[in-house]
Amino acid sequence: MVRWKTDFNGKKVSVLRCELMDSGSGVKSFKAYVDGRFVLFTSYRGVWTCRLKETPLRPEGKRRRLTVKVTDRCGNETVDEKEFIY
Question: What is the pTM for the complete model shown?
Fold first, then answer.
């Protein structure tokens, strides 16, 4: 399960933050894409963060699509999609 700490309610976003929850086997992989391009998230104390200014994306004030794919150690996959402005 992905729990977002970022507010996506039609606001401009420059930092993406989330927590991953898995009550069973644990998280095996976490991959994130904005408009189909991979973006790097780093983890600190269980919070995954992506600072968009540190990615190849440029702030154009347009609507973007974030896709996050999380896989647990049993092979179960969760895909979460959000839209934001950057």
Answer: 0.88
Token pair listed for 23: 């009550």
Largest CA distance in the chain: 40
Contacts of residue 35, Cβ cutoff 8 Å, sequence gap at least 6: 57, 64, 65
Distance CA 37, CA 51 (A): 14
Per residue in 22-56, pLDDT (tens digit) is 778 888 999 999 999 999 999 999 899 999 999 99
Angle, CA of 76, 66 and 47, to the nearest 5°: 70
Alpha-carbon distance values, 64 to 10, 23, 49, 72 (Å)? 11, 31, 17, 26
